[in-house]
Amino acid sequence: MTDVRQESLASLLGGRGGAVDASLPPVAFVAGWLLFDHSIGAGAIAAVLCGVVIGIVRFVRGEKPRAVVFSVLAVVAASLVALYTGRAEDFFLIQLLSNMASSLAWAGSIAVRWPLLGVVVGTLLGQKTRWRRDPDLLHAYSIASWPWVAQYALRVAVFTPLWLDAQVYWLATLRVGLSWPLQIVCILVSGWMLRRALPADHPGFRHPRSPETD
Predict the structure, then answer these.
(1) Under a CB-based contact definition with an 8 Å cutoff, are residues 124 and 11 in contact?
(2) Are 190 and 201 in contact (CB under 8 A)?
(3) Which of 88, 112, 141, 209 is surrounded by the most beta carbons within 10 Å?
(4) How many helices (H) and strands (E) in the chain?
(5) How many structural domains compose the chain?
(6) Is the pLDDT of residue 97 over 90?
């Protein structure tokens, strides 16, 4: 019999595809910016075209239209910000602010005992809020949410000085380096911490226990 406690969180949360896709438009932006004599307009066009192509590929792969449209709109919004300010580094501003907000949101969710890892996994599994009625699972999700806080905080710590110093090339390079590799590490560490935090007799995150049934 398969040990359900050993089930990988990565198998539920997915692989690296989405993060890889998200890292390509910034690379296209910088490539266009460099090739056309630091033209923000050329970089924006390259990024949007890249985002549209990726969106089409994702749609053909069967992803939800809403997710595809959102990913393309995110690239358009980043391009518009850079065009409006006239600063190429501002293409990365929305992402920087998003990571700041995400770090605070994940930390805040732990503080109020609604860890976002539990919310996400519970939603994907159709459990709604049943996981919160399991004290052990609530505690484990709280502990396992900290790597997600650290993931976003690390990006903020790295990207902020680069953005302030207008290091466009390094912003794009580290956007790739801190996208899917960091996300994979985060998921693996988070899954390990989740398993370690659960009691030995717990059936796993797919099977929340209610106190009244124990």
Answers:
(1) no
(2) no
(3) 141
(4) 10, 0
(5) 1
(6) yes
Q: What percent of the chain has a predicted confidence (pLDDT) above 70?
A: 89
* d(C-alpha 205, C-alpha 83), whole Å: 46
For every residue of 13-57, DSSP letters joined together read: H--SHHHHHHHHHHHHHHHHHHHTTS-HHHHHHHHHHHHHHHHHH
Per-residue model confidence as pLDDT tens digits over 30-87: 999 999 999 999 999 999 999 999 889 888 887 777 777 888 899 999 999 999 999 9
The predicted-structure confidence for 43-57, as pLDDT tens digits, reads as follows 999 999 999 998 898
For residues 44-75, b (16+ Cβ closer than 10 Å) or e, as one string? bbbbbebbbebbeebeeeebeeeebeebbebb
Closest CA to 172 of 21, 25, 27: 27
Distance of alpha carbon 193 from alpha carbon 187, whole angstroms: 10
Which residues, including other chains, have CB under 8 Å from residue 65's CB and lie 6 or more apart? 59
Residues listed for the chain = 214
